[in-house]
Every structure is written in C-alpha cells, then in structure tokens.
Automatic annotation (TrEMBL), chain A:
<dbReference type="InterPro" id="IPR039425">
    <property type="entry name" value="RNA_pol_sigma-70-like"/>
</dbReference>
<keyword id="KW-0805">Transcription regulation</keyword>
<dbReference type="InterPro" id="IPR013324">
    <property type="entry name" value="RNA_pol_sigma_r3/r4-like"/>
</dbReference>
<dbReference type="InterPro" id="IPR013325">
    <property type="entry name" value="RNA_pol_sigma_r2"/>
</dbReference>
<dbReference type="InterPro" id="IPR014284">
    <property type="entry name" value="RNA_pol_sigma-70_dom"/>
</dbReference>
<dbReference type="InterPro" id="IPR036388">
    <property type="entry name" value="WH-like_DNA-bd_sf"/>
</dbReference>
<keyword id="KW-0731">Sigma factor</keyword>
<keyword id="KW-0804">Transcription</keyword>
<comment type="similarity">
    <text>Belongs to the sigma-70 factor family. ECF subfamily.</text>
</comment>
TrEMBL record, chain B:
<protein>
    <submittedName>
        <fullName>Tetratricopeptide repeat protein</fullName>
    </submittedName>
</protein>
<keyword id="KW-0472">Membrane</keyword>
<feature type="transmembrane region" description="Helical">
    <location>
        <begin position="77"/>
        <end position="97"/>
    </location>
</feature>
<keyword id="KW-0812">Transmembrane</keyword>
<dbReference type="Pfam" id="PF13174">
    <property type="entry name" value="TPR_6"/>
</dbReference>
<dbReference type="InterPro" id="IPR011990">
    <property type="entry name" value="TPR-like_helical_dom_sf"/>
</dbReference>
<keyword id="KW-1133">Transmembrane helix</keyword>
<dbReference type="InterPro" id="IPR019734">
    <property type="entry name" value="TPR_rpt"/>
</dbReference>
Length: 189, 241
C-alpha cells in the first residue's frame, strides 16, 4: 500500500468506519499468526495477542498518538504484538531467545516510543469509575469519551457536537464530572 | 491560568512548555490539584477499559465467524500431542522397543518439518514496489517455490543477509536437499541471522537422510547454544539416542 492509501485507511479508522476496522483485522491476521508461531505459544494465546495488539493499535489511532503512518500497518501490529508476546513469555517464565531475529521490527521500532501500552488490568478505583460512568446519561458519556479517550480539545468538541461556545462545553463537562463524583460519594461514604 | 484549564490542556495534550512547568509544580505541592488529576486520570483509564471491552467483543465476533468459514488446520496442539506420545514411549523404555519398532526417519521428519514463515519482508496489498525481492517472497508465501527460487537466485544475498536462509527453505520445498544443506551451512558459517534456525533444519535434513550422527550433533549444538525449538529438539534427541 502506498503512503496515501495507508493514511486514507487511517482516516477511515479514526472516523469509526466499521468496515475498515474489520477489513484491517482480517487482512493482517494470518500474517501475524504466522509471525507469532515462532514463540511456541498456544493458538489461543496467539489470537489473544493479536487482538490485544490490534486494540492497542486502534486506541493509539483514536487518541491521535499515531497521526500518520511511517510504516505499514502490519509493522505496527508486529511491533506491538512482539511487545505483548514478550510479556506473556516473561510471565510464563519461558526463555526468550536472543536468536529471535525480527528483521522487520528492528528497523522501525523507533515509533514504538510514541505508542502507549498500558497495564492490562485496571485498579479498584478505575473499576469503580467504570461502573459509575456507565450510569451517566448518553450525552455525558459521549462528551467525556471524546475528551478523555479521543483526546479532543474543548474547541473540537464544540465543533463536532455543535455546541454554541466553548464555555457551554466546559460547563457541561463540569456538570458531568460533578454528577459522577456525587454518585460515587453517595454510595461509598 | 486557572487550575482547571491546566488540567484540560493536559488531557487534550496541548500544554505549553510554561504551562507544563506550572502543572508539574502544582502536582508536587498542591494535594487537591493532585487528587483531581488522579481522579481524571483514573476516569480516562476507565473509559478506555469500557471501549476496550467493546472492541474485544467485536474482535471475538470476527474470530467466531472466521472459524466457521475456515477449515481446521494443524495446530500447535498436534505438535504437543506428538511430543507427549514420544515422551510416553520413552518412559516405557525406547531401548526395548527399538528392536521391533524401527525408527521411522521419514515420519520423524514430516512430523517436525514446518516451513519457516516469511518474517523478513513485509508484503502489503496494493504495494507499488515490484522488486524481485517482493516477487520472491510473494511466491514463497503462496507456495510457488519455482517462481520463488528463480527470483531469489537473482538477488544478491550479500545485500540482505536473510536471503540465503529463505533460499534454503525454498530448495528444501523443491526437494533439492543438497542445495538447501549448503545454504544452511553458509548461514551458520557467515554467522548472520537465523543461525539457530539453520541448525534445526540441518538436523531435520540429517534425519531425512537417516544420518543419525549428524542429526544428533546439530540438535546438541542447538540445545546447548540457542533457545529456538529447544523443547522439540530435546524430544528428538531423546528419540534418536
């Protein structure tokens, strides 16, 4: 794929295009599983690693951490996947061989610095927040998701959701946060 | 600038250098500010988790549909089952059986042989690159070994050190064992990429050629010096000795 069509794909993903989301998953699946074979994990573990890598890849597009592609999509997936597999191997206490030569990954690994990979599990506080977040109204959930997940600025939210001014967005956001805090407080203090 | 604006800019990734400095100071000295920051950071992670769960569910769904479509393939489980059954045989005492169950070299070879996947050259659909290398790897991945070898032969193996290894793989598929063998040996003597892997394939070739001593020697080198396919190599070694 040339740069232009790759970045076109990225734009589609960012806009939430479901067909692109599915197509890219399927297009890179075999290649990834072939690549993962050499680590001698089970098939289920490999698929799991691919899915996690794909989700992280997608998150980084959505949050704007990957703004344009400097490599092919599979290279991103392989690099993230390699990282995740190494983590599984470490946890399984299987030895990681220095002989695993990742010729693809080596050259392009520098972009990994910009990619955000977080702990897989969440803390108690985060779990609590998740539960209460889901009790909020649709509008609040959308606004907070745009802000915290998609990394939109107040101004961008105003334009996207056709609010009248930035101040309206700000006060709407404060109200949502206040409701969230109050609901947690009333149940837990 | 008020504290709330600082936090807002932090989360939309638009802090100026000056604001960042102020932000860090507050984080250190202002417990209320820090608390608010932690709260928002946790919320950010919580929202991410919610999205993650939804995305994972979608992918699981793709996976189920794919599995219905495709035919089952030989998986790792098969390899493990073979290893396990060999292990059981061994514990019973291979020695005693050796007299009436002949070591089936061909079977041992085909049970363990698996073509090495192309991990060196990325092929993307709609790629404009139409180089010889690309053509070689496309053919390799799709099993057109004749085309693959024609193109591999045109390439300068000094330029890309992984070429010899894939060339050897292709010769192996074409049943040109001697060509494969000398290339794997070259990879080892050049000490480039895929040294461990080449030991493994040389051991398999020796098994195919019923050359027990060489097989043992390659496997022993593999087990002592590398981790690639170590467990499988150990099972094979037990089997051969």
């Amino acid at each position: 794929m040339d740069k232009e069509s790759v970045n076109n794909t990225l734009e589609k993903l960012r806009k939430g295009d479901e067909a692109a989301f599915k197509r890219i998953y399927e297009e890179n699946r075999e290649k990834f599983l072939n690549f993962a074979k050499r680590y001698n994990l089970s098939d289920d573990e490999n698929i799991d690693a691919y899915q996690d890598a794909y989700v992280i890849f997608y998150e980084n597009i959505m949050s704007g951490k990957i703004e344009n592609f400097t490599s092919s999509i599979s290279t991103y997936l392989f690099s993230i996947g390699k990282y995740l597999i190494m983590d599984i191997l470490k946890k399984n206490k299987k030895q990681v061989s220095s002989e695993f030569n990742l010729s693809i990954v080596k050259e392009d690994d520098n972009f990994m610095e910009t990619i955000e990979i977080e702990e897989k599990s969440i803390s108690k506080e985060q779990q609590l927040l998740l539960t209460y977040f889901e009790t909020l109204g649709k509008k609040c959930q959308e606004l907070l998701t745009l802000f915290y997940y998609r990394g939109y600025t107040i101004n961008e939210i105003m334009k996207k959701e056709s609010y009248n001014s930035e101040n309206v967005v700000k006060s709407q956001k404060s109200r949502c946060m206040k409701t969230l805090r109050e609901r947690i407080k009333s149940d837990h203090l | 600038m008020d504290k709330e604006a600082l936090l807002t800019n932090y989360f939309s990734d638009s802090l100026t250098a000056e604001e960042r400095q102020l932000f860090n100071q507050l984080l250190e000295n202002d417990t209320k500010f820090k608390e608010q920051f932690e709260f928002e950071k946790d919320l950010k992670r919580a929202i991410k988790e919610k999205e993650r769960i939804q995305l994972k569910a979608k992918l699981q769904d793709f996976e189920t549909k794919l599995k219905h479509k495709s035919t089952p393939k030989t998986s790792n489980y098969k390899a493990w089952a073979i290893a396990a059954s060999i292990a059981i045989l061994l514990s019973v005492g291979w020695f005693g059986y050796d007299n009436f169950i002949k070591l089936d070299y061909n079977e041992l070879y085909s049970e363990n042989f698996q073509q090495y996947p192309n991990t060196s050259y990325t092929i993307t659909r709609g790629d404009t690159d139409d180089s010889t290398e690309r053509q070689a790897f496309v053919a390799y991945e799709t099993g057109n070994y004749k085309t693959a070898i024609e193109n591999f032969e045109k390439l300068d193996s000094n330029a890309k050190e992984y070429i010899d290894f894939y060339k050897a793989q292709t010769y192996l598929e074409l049943n040109k064992i001697n060509s494969a063998k000398s290339l794997f040996k070259k990879v080892i003597s050049d000490n480039v990429e895929f040294v461990a892997e080449s030991h493994w394939y040389l051991a398999l070739i020796s098994i195919k050629e019923k050359d027990k001593q060489s097989a043992i020697s390659y496997l022993e080198q593999l087990v002592t010096n590398y981790d690639f396919n170590k467990e499988k190599a150990e099972v094979l070694l037990d089997h051969l000795k």
